[in-house]
Design a protein that fits this description.
alpha+beta, Immunoglobulin-like, 5-stranded antiparallel β-sheet, 10 helices, about 25% helix, disordered N terminus
Length: about 600
């Protein structure tokens, strides 16, 4: 190269035009030696909705071989790789570019990484820098980029229709998800990408597994549509609540602009990501005017039935009493009212029975509690009427139902004395003491005792046995004493054993009902309150969770154990409204045993 320049400068017969030609050739020959290889990855956006598409370009400035794309974790490739090459000469300067393009559809929310792609250029391996992409909730107006093939994938609309925009608190509403599509489009299936959370609702989905096509209109135009899902919602708070969109990956067949030799259009299979728009409902609070004192949150239309298995029986014989609430409404969100029985009746913990089915219009069926009653004395007794109040959203008013009074005749058994206090069903009876004439006949008044001759005790075998026996037992007593002292010294171990026994005692009923979610969490909640009742001698079921946590902290229970105890109480409440799994039930049971054991070791008496 230097020889060429020297020649150009020293050659006297070269003209200016010749120098320019040689200089240009020299620059063109030397420029590739100084060119730098570039291989980069570019994305159309770093933040997008779950219903949008992402374009990824892998661009290089020199031609290469063995291109290896990344895995695209969190995305599905809907188009690509599309290859484009640009080779231009501008003012004598060559510009080369080669690009591999992919169009991706997100499969879920989250932050995902576009990994490294690799290419081989002149025997060297070059890799791109990873790029993080954040996928958020669905957007109302998705942008799919500049891919013409993607933009023409059929006329589809996912619509969420709400049965009532302004319901009362705990009143049922239904969200119907409909997929509208043009007659030129054929739906072959769909997959849910992102489900709404419904955090402020009790919810249950009713999926339609079979696609049934119907005719309808959307925005004034004729469409075909199919119902994909019905979701039943019971709002749990008042005010404006937003319903998040549902996002789907729809598999469909659409017409193309190409036709066969007979003029029929070709069909192509493709995927389309769709999302419904955000919807907002305004939940009205239940009116305070006229609200009964015994109102427990029941909203709907209900009937009350109180019945017994028998009205005549003997003392110590049991009878079954059932309180049943039937009808349509939020049956899974409240319990039947309790009964008031005579104090001379032994009453066992009621058995809760749920016969509720969930339909598109709401919950319907019945819930009941079965009591076992055992009278102690004969006589005539009455069971007070049961009162049940509920709110009827149709009329916008409260309604109260009262059952009839039940008469129980106890025919045979111990006779009760005159009531000591109170009358009617609340009377307390005492059994009279009857003295028999020969009650003390076993006492012998004339013993007729006789003296007996006894052998000499001193120096006898018995004498020396009793004298030396205690001396021989001294080492045994010392050994036993030391053993007990060691056991008493192990205070931590004793406390641990005692705490574990106590946890098993209170959680025994919950353990038996682990196969039934409602019964398990009901028993678990009672066990937690009964445990605190036994340790603190107070009715914690009447206290708020903040008050319970404050009491535990005052008794020197650690903040972690107190928080875990409150979290378990919240889990019991949430389980009434939302379904859970067997694994979650087992975790809550193990956590309850651990928390009770921990609190029992830490709690201090007031």
């Amino acid at each position: 190269m230097y020889e060429i320049e020297f020649y150009i400068r020293t050659c006297s017969y070269c003209t200016m035009k010749t120098r320019l030609i040689f200089t240009t050739l020299l620059f063109l020959l030397a420029s590739p030696l100084f060119a730098q290889v570039s291989f980069v990855a570019k994305v159309s956006k770093e933040k997008l909705g779950v219903n949008e598409r992402l374009r990824v370009d892998f661009e290089m400035n020199q031609d290469g071989d063995n291109f290896q794309p990344p895995q695209f974790t969190g995305f599905k490739v809907v188009a690509g790789p599309n290859q484009s090459v640009s080779n231009m000469w501008i003012n004598g300067k060559r510009t080369y570019s080669k690009t591999f393009s992919y169009f991706l559809s997100p499969t879920a929310r989250g932050t995902f990484t576009i990994g490294q792609a690799s290419i081989e250029i002149d025997g060297e391996i070059y890799k791109t820098v990873p790029i993080n992409v954040e996928v958020g909730a669905a957007v109302d107006t998705p942008k799919d980029g500049d891919n013409i093939d993607i933009a023409s994938q059929g006329d589809l609309h996912l619509v969420a229709e709400i049965s009532k925009a302004s319901p009362y608190l705990n009143e049922a509403i239904t969200v119907v998800y409909k997929l509208y599509f043009s007659p030129e489009t054929s739906i072959s299936g769909y997959r849910v990408i992102d489900n709404p959370t419904f955090a402020d609702f009790w919810s249950q989905n009713i999926d339609n597994n079979q696609i049934q096509v119907q005719e309808g209109t959307y925005q004034g135009k004729p469409y075909l549509y199919t119902i994909l899902r019905n979701t039943l919602l019971y709002p749990q708070k008042t005010g404006k609540i937003q319903i998040e969109p549902l996002s789907l990956d729809v598999q469909l067949q659409v017409r193309t602009n190409r036709r066969d030799i007979f003029g029929r259009p070709f069909m192509t299979r493709t995927n389309r990501t769709l999302s419904s728009v955000n919807r907002t409902i305004d939940v009205k609070p239940l009116p305070l005017d006229g609200q009964p004192a015994n109102f427990s949150g029941a909203v709907g239309t209900f009937n009350l039935d109180v019945k017994t298995s028998k009205t005549k029986l003997d003392a110590r014989e049991s009878l079954e009493l059932t309180v049943e609430i039937s009808g349509t409404g939020n049956l899974k969100l409240f319990r039947p009212p309790s009964i008031t029985s005579p104090t001379t009746f032994e009453v066992y913990e009621p058995e809760f029975i749920d016969r509720v089915t969930t339909t598109q219009s709401g919950m319907r069926g019945s819930i009941s509690e079965n009591y076992t009653l055992v009278p102690q004395f004969q006589g005539d007794y009455t069971i007070d009427p049961v009162i049940f109040s509920y709110f009827d959203p149709t009329s916008g008013s409260y309604k109260t139902i009262t059952s009839g009074e039940l008469l129980i005749e106890v025919e045979q058994g111990p006779v009760a004395s005159t009531p000591a206090a109170g009358t009617g069903s609340q009377a307390v009876y005492r059994q009279p003491v009857v003295m028999a004439n020969e009650q003390f006949k076993y006492i012998k008044l004339d013993a007729n005792l006789k003296a007996i001759d006894s052998p000499r005790f001193f120096n006898s075998v018995a004498f020396w046995s009793l004298f030396t026996g205690p001396l021989l037992l001294i080492p045994l007593f010392i050994f036993i004493g030391r053993k007990q002292k060691n056991l008493q010294a192990d205070i931590a171990g004793q406390r641990l054993k005692k705490a574990n026994r106590l946890a098993k005692k209170y959680l025994s009923e919950a353990k038996k009902n682990r196969g039934n979610q409602a019964h398990f969490y009901d028993a678990l909640e009672r066990a937690l309150h009964n445990y605190l009742k036994a340790k603190l001698s107070i009715e914690t079921s009447d206290f708020s969770k903040e008050r319970i946590e404050g009491i535990l902290l005052d008794r020197q229970v650690s903040s972690q154990a107190s928080s875990d105890f409150i979290a378990l109480l919240k889990s019991c409440e949430y389980a009434r409204y939302t379904p859970t799994t067997e694994g979650a039930i087992q975790l809550d049971y193990d956590k309850a045993a651990e928390v009770i054991s921990t609190i029992d070791k830490q709690i201090k008496k007031a």
